[in-house]
Specification:
Helices cover 71% and strands 4% of the residues. It is mainly alpha-helical.
Length: 260
């Protein structure tokens, strides 16, 4: 399909165009803009979610009374419909919402911020939203990994005078390598396919400056709004290649760090 020019409404008129779709895709500035946006978003999301989820997992590991209650509370955002969660988030973060009002009352903002019309704010704010929405999944994965670590390793380290930070970097992180690798891989694969969040807030152009445009949103626009299914298929394959490259680089970096 990526080697054809196919109109959704007239599939019988499909014609072979060779690698023309691929050339257009590589030269398409909107595709690269969408790719930059999602990489910008994911760099914030992955770092923020990793810190929060691992921190909460370490905390829950030490809690004995009421641990199940805390896990349930933290997991509520995950089971909440993403459409409902986005409506709540959009209200909270709106110029007239409670978050901006509190920030203005304490002097953190001089006035309301219309972040959906900003050039740089949409992706960081969506990264914060997704971190809140999905951190509990990673927290449970890390918690499961933490519970498998032999406690005698920590006891031996404390006998040798190792501080908490030394134990964390020398014992906890290296032994959590399988969980970290799995979480990071899933983050890249799922994050690069972000669609619902931006589809609910922005138009198919990704809003002003295309600041909310993501590769999947652009793919959807190309296939179902522009009716160019062949080119949309090409964009989908280009995105798959990018995800494969990023995942491979990530695996090599994590494995190299683990070996060192």
């Amino acid at each position: 399909m990526s080697f054809q020019d196919i109109n959704v409404l007239q599939p019988e008129r499909a014609r072979f165009v060779g690698i023309e779709n691929w050339i257009n895709g590589i030269q398409d500035p909107l595709f690269w803009k969408a790719l930059f946006n999602i990489l910008y978003n994911q760099s914030i999301f992955i770092a923020l979610t990793f810190v929060i989820s691992l921190g909460m997992a370490l905390l829950l590991k030490e809690i004995t009374a009421g641990a199940g209650i805390f896990r349930t509370i933290y997991f509520l955002p995950v089971i909440t419909s993403i459409a409902v969660a986005m409506i709540i988030f959009e209200f909270l973060a709106s110029p007239n919402g409670p978050v901006q009002r509190i920030m203005m009352s304490v002097g953190l903002l001089d006035g309301p911020v219309f972040w959906t019309f900003s050039k740089w704010l949409p992706m960081p704010l969506l990264a914060i939203f997704n971190s809140w929405k999905w951190f509990a999944v990673q927290m449970m994965i890390f918690l499961g990994g933490l519970l498998t670590i032999n406690k005698e390793l920590y006891e031996a380290a404390r006998v040798d005078g190792a501080s908490w930070w030394t134990q964390f970097f020398r014992i906890t992180l290296p032994l959590l390598k399988p969980q970290i690798l799995f979480v990071m891989t899933m983050n890249v694969i799922n994050g690069m396919q972000m669609f619902t969040e931006v589809f609910m807030i922005f138009d198919l152009q990704g809003g002003p400056y295309h600041a909310g445009l993501t590769p999947v949103l652009y793919l959807y626009k190309t296939g179902f709004d522009d009716m160019s299914m062949g080119y949309a298929a090409t964009l989908g394959l280009l995105l798959a290649v990018v995800i494969l490259i990023l995942t491979t680089i990530q695996w090599k970096l994590i494995n190299r760090h683990g070996e060192s």
